[in-house]
Design brief:
The chain is built from 32 helices and 9 strands.
């Protein structure tokens, strides 16, 4: 009979094989009847890792049997024969014949009893038996494969390169806000079409495809943890860091709290990093198996209070192994639950910070206390908003803007009518666009809305008049009556002059890398600009708008009969008082004694012209707060005055340069080495959070990640995706090998990764 493919596979000759000329011969089963089964012998494993039952004959005694076992078994025989099992001091077995109960020549050898003639030719003769070949065919049919060694041999390893490619595909989806669990297998299919069959490279067997939701989430966790580990390591190395957190409601009506961190890296640069997103609500329930009564229901209420927020933040700090001794500031949006003097979340966090630093054996130990900071952008928005709330003219103007936006945004017919008017009058007016939404929650929205309305005011009034005549719309008639008054036009022009200045300041406050040094400078400049605008004459600007409207058939309404008198009355009653109120609110809201101390210490003019005693008082105030020795710090300040004077005008061009020289690495700056405590105060000053705008930006990203379609996304997955989206480097710079290595070490895996 011709040699079959299966026979050729299992009958491969090795170069090291010792060819024996012995004929095929098996011991008689009656001889083996006296062999005993050693019940204490360890159970053998077949090639696939499955346990085999006892492989020795149950009724024989090894002591009374003279075995014909030669000491010449070579494990190289098993390299091409995964079915071959050798048991020391017993003999050889065939796992396939035993599995399918095949008995060559009707004997039990190779099946329930061992073959004791340990010769290579004996193994080859067994391969040629019809019973063994039948076992091989049955195994091939069972596993639907042409290679039995894939089933019986140990699992093959997965190359790092193949898994890196899979991780890179998942990272691309996460970085671009694409649903990862549903699109990851599809992206691998696309790669296959494009000639890069990643799926076949990582697939092992029929049950290890690594495209299930569980596998994808494990990949995602490792991608996120690599980024998180690097960030936390950098923070732990810094001697000064501050936290910023804020909360919002996502699409599933779940309160989410985002935490950011500011710290100084070893090179002296200010870094801002995303840390974590947490479910802000405390959820306490009735113990399992316990029936609640009405008195116990109070404990199951979901609450958002200072204790809840404090617990969340404190647990994160301690679980992340961050030091309380280097926590210098806590930034919030300024809500009462955050900044309350008696029971605010910030106060409770600082109390916990002091508690963890207290040492009973060292009562004189200096205790570091973090400074609570109210977001500058929020304070600026409140200053302008509260100033406007005291003037009925401005409040009425805001209501008109909101009503005007709703009038057009809720009707496609009206919006189309406005667009048609603008198209007809395109050559004369050159006005295009729509009315923006004057949202109070967006800091820059009102200023942008007023500027846009001034540009399209004439076409809007003409459109409203058309709605009044053709459709007898009472809302349009009322808006026309209000918008054609000189008082409305004057208010519009006033806000167009003031709000862009405030918006410019707000945009500066929202920069991630800004510090309080820049905040103070920007505030001083803005105050000077607003004082100038308070004295500005708006008559010319209002006259230009009025002439444009009247030239297109719009009749304006004057209170006193002429433009000049109305504008002068408006300036006296609204323009000057409103701007003065804005300036007053800015001074009140941005008055901070701790920040004043910092500003005095790190102002170069004070070192040249100031009083040493006054500077030392400011230093002592800050030393008490941040656990810095007073005597050493004050001596450094006194000595530093001489260095600043000797450095001249060119050494410190701006206050920012002044701070930068102090916070630079000691390897590159003599000031950090010579004045370590002053340099530490400079680093603290720079890390204190002047805003929470980074948290607000994360809220926008959160809405792009957790959408209506993905509203069941859990907190952990959302945290991983937001971290990759916010802090993940470009796809060409991410260390995917580290993520693959982390994934391979998460647990014992059947298929190993061939790490480089």
């Amino acid at each position: 009979m011709a040699q079959s493919r299966i026979t050729r596979f299992f009958g491969k000759r090795s170069a090291n094989d010792d060819i024996s000329n012995s004929d095929y011969s098996e011991d008689d089963p009656s001889e083996n009847a006296s062999c005993s089964h050693d019940r204490n012998r360890p159970t053998e494993l077949d090639g696939s890792g499955d346990q085999l039952p006892s492989l020795t004959h149950p009724g024989a005694s090894s002591s009374s049997k003279k075995l014909k076992i030669a000491q010449g078994f070579s494990h190289t025989w098993k390299e091409s024969r995964p079915w071959l099992i050798y048991v020391e001091k017993e003999g050889m077995y065939c796992t396939l014949c035993r599995k399918y109960n095949k008995k060559p020549f009707g004997r039990t050898s190779w099946n329930t009893t061992p073959s004791v003639r340990i010769r290579l030719q004996t193994v080859k003769n067994h391969e040629e038996t019809a019973e063994h070949k039948d076992s091989v065919k049955l195994e091939l049919e069972l596993v639907h494969t042409k290679n039995v060694s894939e089933v019986l041999t140990a699992p093959q390893d997965i190359s790092t390169d193949a898994m890196v490619e899979a991780f890179r595909c998942l990272y691309f989806l996460c970085k671009n806000d694409i649903a990862h669990t549903t699109n990851f297998p599809k992206l691998l299919e696309l790669e296959k079409v494009l000639g890069n069959d990643i799926l076949s490279k990582i697939k092992k067997g029929n049950n290890a495809k690594y495209t299930s939701e569980t596998a994808i989430q494990e990949f995602l966790q490792c991608l996120s943890e690599v980024i998180e580990t690097d960030i936390l390591t950098e923070i732990r190395k810094s001697d000064s860091y501050a936290l910023m957190f804020d909360e919002t409601t996502d699409v599933s009506v779940i309160e989410q709290m985002v935490i950011h961190c500011r710290f100084i890296d070893p090179s002296g640069n200010l870094c801002v990093r995303y840390l974590k997103i947490l479910d802000a609500l405390a959820k306490t329930g009735v113990p399992h198996g316990h029936e609640a009564d009405m008195n116990e229901l109070d404990d199951t209420v979901i609450t958002l209070n200072a204790d809840t927020i404090c617990t969340k933040v404190v647990n994160f700090i301690e679980s992340s192994n961050l030091s309380y001794e280097t926590l210098r500031g806590v930034g919030t949006d300024g809500a009462a639950v955050m900044t309350g003097k008696k029971n605010g979340a910030v106060k409770k966090i600082v109390e916990r910070q002091q508690e963890k630093q207290t040492d009973e054996h060292n009562p004189n130990k200096l205790i570091n206390k973090a400074l609570g900071q109210h977001c500058a952008a929020h304070k600026l928005n409140l200053a302008a908003k509260q100033a406007g709330s005291e003037f009925s003219v401005i409040q009425r103007f805001k209501r008109v803007l909101a009503q005007l936006h709703n009038f057009y945004s809720r009707s496609a017919v009206r919006s189309s009518g406005l667009k048609s008017v603008q198209e007809i009058l395109k050559r004369t007016l050159q006005e295009t666009g729509k009315v923006n939404n004057p949202s109070e929650t967006r800091w820059l929205a009102l200023g942008e809305c007023t500027l846009k309305l001034r540009d399209i005011l004439t076409s809007v009034v003409i459109s409203l008049e058309r709605e009044t005549v053709e459709r007898a719309d009472p809302t349009a008639a009322g808006l026309v009556n209000l918008m054609t008054r000189i008082e409305f036009i004057a208010t519009l022009e006033l806000l167009c002059q003031v709000l862009p200045t405030v918006n410019r300041l707000s945009a500066q406050f929202q920069k991630s890398q800004i510090d309080f040094c820049a905040v103070k400078i920007a505030l001083t400049a803005t105050t000077a600009i607003l004082n100038q605008k308070a004295a500005m004459d708006l008559t010319q600007d209002i006259s230009v708008i009025g002439q444009k409207m009247e030239s297109n058939g719009i009749k304006l309404k004057y209170n006193s009969g002429n433009l000049i008198d109305d504008v002068n009355h408006f300036k006296e009653k609204t323009q000057v008082p409103f701007i003065e109120k804005v300036i007053e609110n800015l001074h009140v809201r941005f008055q901070d004694t701790d920040m004043t101390a910092f500003s005095a210490i790190f102002s170069r003019e004070n070192y040249r012209n100031g009083e040493p005693e006054q500077l030392c008082q400011h230093v002592e105030t800050l030393c008490e707060h941040f656990a810095i020795p007073k005597a050493k710090a004050t001596n450094e300040v006194k000595d530093f005055m001489f260095y600043v004077t000797a450095a001249g005008e060119d050494q410190f061009v701006t206050q920012d340069d002044f701070l930068q020289n102090l916070t630079m690495s000691p390897d590159t700056s003599i000031y950090s080495t010579s004045f370590p405590l002053l340099a530490k105060l400079a680093r603290i000053y720079r890390v204190l959070p002047p805003h929470t705008a980074d948290c607000e930006r994360d809220f926008s990203k959160l809405k792009l990640i957790k959408t209506d379609i993905r509203n069941r996304m859990g907190e952990t997955t959302l945290d991983h995706l937001l971290r990759i989206r916010t802090e993940g480097p470009p796809i060409g710079e991410y260390p995917f090998e580290n993520a693959v290595k982390l994934w391979s070490q998460k647990k014992v895996r059947r298929y190993k990764i061939r790490l480089k």
